[in-house]
Design goal:
This protein is α+β, with helices and mostly antiparallel strands. It contains 24 helices and 24 strands.
Length: 701
């Protein structure tokens, strides 16, 4: 690569390769190539001027020069930006835009004659005036009308300096808002990406588990109940109810069959489909979710929506004030001062910036929030309901014991159970599959297609006999399998406090699998702190026995718990709590939690939750524990406090400006400057972190 060294100091060197020596799309590829060397600390790449700024370890100057000279951009492959590089690029663009705007303002004032500058201001001002007129013709009396009117009034008065200042400040405010949205989108994109590690590839008529990286366009994959669809594609076989809320915002699943298009990030609620891979990228899903967060009225915080409505409703009063002042004082300067100060601009800008910045801060803490509405609901909630297994208990339960019946051996029971459970991601299923793997049991499929029965259990056909696995309620009550008193006595004696999963083949009990489900290390402390955070009711729901539930609840200090609860009963309990006036948070991880998660005011899925739980939930924790719940509560409460403080500041400060303008204490130009400067300041403040950097939640232990 040809270059000129334009800056050279120890540890830092800048190369200039000439304008567009490499394309914009190759920036990250070149950056990746340079920072791959261990003597490079960091680098900045700009395609516009072919600039390469390299920070390196002292003593490696010649290595850096050799690296740049030997790099052939034509051999680089285009690779997508990662989130860190994308955010750095956004920061640089924002900084350049601000510096450019300020530089233009200074250069214009110093070097452009007043006469020419006047015509430039008139030309630019007319754009704002025309935008205001268009908004008015569209039937909306919004902030754009007020901006256009205030600039028009300045131009009519020939107060070009004030008009130029107003437009400059509006431009800066717009850049600030665009920067906040762009930076937040970049931060959310990585956390919202579909990150499937493995998929079931249909090969020679059988399903084979393969790494996602081996998948190619045109391959056929199997997606079963409860699993996320990892690709864009077309159904080539089967039918299923698919939850597309991540794409459309609609919570109701739709039936899809052969020939229908499916998208990455949507979830199979019930059924099984074979999908022909059309696109491997999940960019569509990411952009759709972020678009929903930005624009969907249903996902906005109620206080944000009210602020935006209030902002537009205040605009007419600004015009009324302008007219009244002009009528009674006959002083156009004082009347224009009223137009220069409006409450709506600051309200409409600062509220969404505060909300979306809080969502970004949550993403930085490994918490995905799908809309500002859910932060508001979390702050207001007084009841939190926990699923037990995989939520309050360890995310990795362990298979402790296998109790065989009906002539089966322990290994045979475990082999069948693992074969069925491996298709349905859940912490208990993982324990069974891992237990078989540790014993070296090969559980190659010998059964027909497995089905998840209305979120109760799993059923299939094995050697022409019906095979089922699930809770005692499912196996006995729903499927009619008899468990003799002797069998039950043996199970109770050997299982202790373990959870028990029942396996039946041919309508006879074949075995019981005892799952040790230790509590999460932080669970007791988190429950205690949640009580101090204002949660009046803490409830535990579980499908386990009353004995197991009582032991767990006692250890955690939970007074209210319900055992042997079915998925529809969890849903009914959430609805009952809401009917009684409670604001409910539901925390879960499994397929059977999905109905309750959907019913709650705000729902939370833990890090290793099933795909359908993560997609159904409004908030997803990506950390390994429950401490994020405390962080989330504090973040949501601080956000609500910030919004209320913003309201008070905007009302007080702008009222003071209005009064000062009416009494002639400040000119329209100063009024516009202070108003726009305060708007920028409050927007900037709304972008700052809500939780202190040194806040240590581990100190609770």
């Amino acid at each position: 690569m040809n270059f000129k060294i334009v800056y050279d100091k120890p540890g830092r060197i800048r190369f200039r390769c000439g304008g567009y020596a490499f394309d914009k799309i190759l920036e990250y590829s070149l950056y990746n190539r340079i920072v791959s060397e261990n003597y490079i600390k960091k680098a900045e790449i700009r395609s516009e001027n072919g600039g390469i700024l390299v920070y390196y370890k002292e003593g490696f100057r010649e290595n850096v020069i050799k690296l740049i000279s030997e790099t052939d951009v034509r051999s680089l492959e285009v690779i997508p930006f990662d989130s860190e590089y994308g955010i750095a690029e956004i920061d640089r663009n924002f900084r350049d835009s601000i510096l450019t705007a300020v530089a233009k303002k200074i250069i214009s004032k110093l070097f452009i004659p007043i006469t020419i500058r006047k015509y430039i201001i008139i030309y630019r001002g007319l754009k704002y005036v025309l935008t205001g007129i268009k908004t008015l013709l569209d039937g909306r009396l919004a902030v754009e009308v007020l901006d256009g009117a205030s600039i028009a009034a300045c131009l009519i008065q020939k107060n070009y300096s004030t008009a130029g200042t107003v437009m400059f400040l509006l431009n800066i405010s717009g850049l600030l808002e665009d920067y906040t949205h762009a930076r937040t989108r970049a931060a959310l994109a990585d956390s919202l990406a579909v990150k499937a590690d493995k998929v079931w590839l249909i090969k020679d008529g059988t399903d084979v588990l393969v790494p996602m990286s081996e998948l190619k366009k045109g391959d056929n994959i199997r997606v079963r109940t409860g699993s996320v669809i990892p690709v864009d594609g077309e159904i080539c076989n089967g039918e299923a109810y698919i939850n597309e809320s991540s794409m459309t915002g609609e919570p109701i699943a739709v039936m899809k069959s052969s020939g229908a298009t499916v998208f990455a990030g949507t979830v199979v609620e019930e059924g099984s489909i074979a999908v022909t891979v059309r696109e491997l990228s999940s960019d569509t899903k990411i952009s759709k979710i972020i678009e929903l967060i930005d624009n969907s009225e249903n996902l906005k915080a109620g206080v944000q929506s009210r602020a935006e409505r209030l902002a537009d409703s205040i605009v007419p009063f600004s015009f009324i004030g302008f007219g009244l002042v002009l009528l009674f004082t006959r002083n156009i300067t004082k009347a224009v001062s009223v137009l220069m100060v409006d409450y709506s601009c600051a309200i409409k800008l600062s509220m969404p910036i505060a909300v979306i910045s809080a969502i970004k801060e949550a993403a930085d803490m490994d918490i995905t929030v799908k809309g500002g509405k859910y932060l508001e609901e979390f702050a207001a909630a007084d009841t939190i309901v926990f699923d037990k297994t995989g939520t309050l208990t360890n995310a990795e339960p362990v298979l402790e014991k296998v109790i065989p019946f009906d002539g089966y051996s322990e290994n045979e029971v475990l082999k069948i159970a693992a074969c069925l459970e491996e298709h349905f991601p859940h912490s208990v299923a993982k324990a069974i599959v891992n237990g078989a793997a540790e014993l070296g049991i090969d559980h190659a499929e010998e059964h027909a297609e497995v089905n998840y029965i209305v979120a109760h259990g799993i059923a299939t056909t094995l050697n022409r006999e019906r095979a089922i696995i699930g809770s005692r309620h499912f196996v006995c009550d729903d499927e009619g399998v008899e468990i003799t008193p002797e069998q039950q006595s043996e199970i109770e004696e050997k299982s202790g406090a373990c959870s028990v999963i029942y396996l039946a083949v041919g309508n006879k009990l074949s075995g019981a699998l005892c799952i040790s489900d230790p509590l999460r290390e932080e669970a007791e402390t988190v429950i205690e702190q949640l009580k101090k955070c204002g949660f009046e009711n803490i409830i535990m729901l579980t499908g386990d026995s009353a004995k197991t539930a009582e032991i767990i609840a006692s250890k955690l200090g939970i007074n209210e718990f319900y055992a042997q609860v079915l998925p529809e009963e969890k849903h009914a309990m959430i609805e009952k709590l809401k009917t009684n006036g409670r604001r409910v948070v539901m925390v879960g991880d499994g397929i059977n939690d999905a109905p309750a998660l959907a019913a709650a005011n705000v729902s939370v899925a833990v890090s290793d939750a099933a795909d359908i739980a993560r997609e159904t939930a409004d908030i997803t924790l990506h950390g390994t524990g429950l401490l994020e719940l405390l962080m989330l509560r504090e973040l949501s409460e601080l956000l609500m406090n910030r919004i209320q403080n913003n309201y008070r500041f905007i009302l007080l400060f702008n009222s003071a400006l209005l009064v000062s303008g009416l009494f002639g204490a400040i000119s329209p130009g100063i009024s516009a400057f202070l108003h726009n400067a305060s708007t920028m300041a409050i927007c900037g403040k709304s972008m700052t972190k809500l939780i202190k950097e040194n806040q240590n939640y581990e100190s609770f232990f």
